[in-house]
Design goal:
This protein is mainly α and 400 residues long. It has two domains: 152 residues, no CATH class; 197 residues, no CATH class. Helix 12 packs antiparallel against helix 13. It starts with a helix and ends with a helix. The N terminus and C terminus are likely disordered. The chain binds protoporphyrin IX containing FE.
Length: 400
């Protein structure tokens, strides 16, 4: 379990209190909460926009044209870019690194508010370039393959953002944003493989899976239909290879045998790897594509893989970021199960062109996120109340 706990503390960790939680000043916590809220505003507006695109009809006040149009950027850059930036800065404990999530949050909120014309897009370029510097700093403190992979993820985000700000279409950029998320998560998981018995196959197999991902992305620069098709094939094959690698070498295969939180995290991770495998196979089969097939290629990875990772890491991320405990409850399995069931429904709807299955599945994915947020907030409240009770009980127990 301790190994899972250290998953996100990339290099240095903040001083811990007797409860094991990082000690932080109240202004520091307020700042982090504000940044987190800004990121979550990207999630909320992005989901509302995504629902409208399904289409699921929402009351007028819950829908704005730019949330619909910018659903993808709000999710990837406004929400996840900010969240990942926060998590990396928490791990590093170096003040200047907070510039990346701060700029990402400002850009995300501006996109959602529909202000500033194209400057939020350029702000995202600056945020991601800053994040590349942060990743380079991490690698200089603690050199290793895992940090190089995470840095490559940061570079993929920056390239995607530059192309988007320069007028590129989202479908051409989506694989770059996907590589950002996949490589970031992969790098964090590679770090933890040191707790498993080393295998001489692990490194060559990882490089063999990473190479086609890079080659597939590079093909996107060639403006020819055959190159785009070859790019989709290689990118997808690379994702399949990475999923296979994670299933084989991740410590989740060991921690699933331990009850409670370690098993919950392992279930999330292994389920997510299954979706990465499926998403890669769909990409290899028919990327570039449009309409329903476009929806299925993207969301197998963005919802199935990425959200499984968020659900699994939330009990570790929240205590590290906010210095507040999250009390694990078996109810945490609910959003995970909902996500799998509804994503499967959505993808079957996409594959067989059944609009109602796609709409119900997509709406179910949004409900799963809401359930997850409700469970997380209640777990933080219960964890904090538990701490307060322990805090009150302790002095009494020391009395004669
Ligand atoms: C949770 C509920 C979600 C719903 C209901 C939803 C819905 C949709 C829909 C209907 C589309 C249009 C697909 C098409 O053109 O046929 C779309 C596109 C997209 N989605 Fe989602 N989505 C969700 C989650 C996510 C997540 C978590 C991410 C990223 C982490 C994401 C990223 C994208 C991207 C990048 C596009 C392409 C946008 C474009 O081409 O402009 N979505 N989504």
């Amino acid at each position: 379990m301790t190994s899972e706990m250290s998953a996100l503390s990339t290099t240095r960790s903040a001083p811990a209190s007797v409860t094991g939680l990082p000690v932080m000043r109240s202004w520091e916590r307020i700042g982090r909460v504000l940044l987190l809220m800004a990121g979550i505003s990207g999630l909320v507006t992005g989901i509302l926009g995504g629902l409208t695109r399904l289409p699921v009809l929402l009351p007028g006040g819950m829908m704005r044209a730019n949330w619909v149009e910018l659903h993808g950027p709000l999710m990837v850059c406004g929400f996840l870019g900010t969240l990942i930036g926060i998590e990396r800065s928490v791990g590093l404990g170096i003040r200047w690194t907070w510039g990346a999530p701060l700029l990402g949050a400002v850009a995300g909120v501006s996109l959602a508010a529909g202000i500033g014309g194209s400057w939020p897009q350029w702000l995202l370029v600056v945020a991601s370039a800053w994040f590349v510097l942060v990743s380079w700093k991490v690698d200089s403190i603690q050199p290793g393959l895992s940090n190089v992979v995470m840095a490559l993820g940061a570079v993929a985000w920056m390239v995607g953002n530059i192309r988007w700000a320069a007028g590129g279409a989202v479908p051409a950029i989506a694989p770059w944003w996907m590589a950002f998320l996949v490589l970031t998560i992969l790098g964090e998981r590679i770090q933890l493989t040191r707790y498993r018995k080393p295998s001489r196959w692990a490194r060559p197999m990882l490089l063999a899976a990473l190479a086609p991902v890079g080659a597939g992305l590079a093909c996107g620069f060639i403006d020819h239909a055959d190159a785009r098709r070859a790019g989709g094939l290689m990118f997808g094959a690379g994702l399949v290879g990475l999923a296979g690698w994670l299933m084989s070498f991740d410590i989740a295969r060991v921690t699933i045998k331990h009850p409670g939180l370690p098993r919950f995290m392992a279930v999330c991770l292994l389920g997510g790897y299954g979706w990465l495998f499926a998403g890669g196979a769909l990409f290899a089969w028919n990327w570039p594509c449009q309409g329903y097939h476009y929806d299925m290629c993207l969301h197998a990875v963005f919802v199935g893989f990425v959200f499984s990772m968020i659900f699994g890491h939330a009990p570790v991320i929240f205590p590290a970021v906010l210095g507040l405990p999250v009390r694990f409850t078996p109810w945490s399995y609910l959003p995970v199960g909902l996500t799998h069931v509804f994503l499967l429904t959505r993808i079957v709807g996409d594959l067989l062109s059944i609009p109602s299955a796609r709409a119900w599945g997509g709406a179910g994915n949004a409900v799963a996120v809401i359930v997850f947020m409700a469970i997380t907030v209640s777990a933080v409240i219960r964890g904090t109340m538990n701490l307060t009770t322990i805090g009150r009980a302790k002095p009494r127990s020391t009395q004669p």
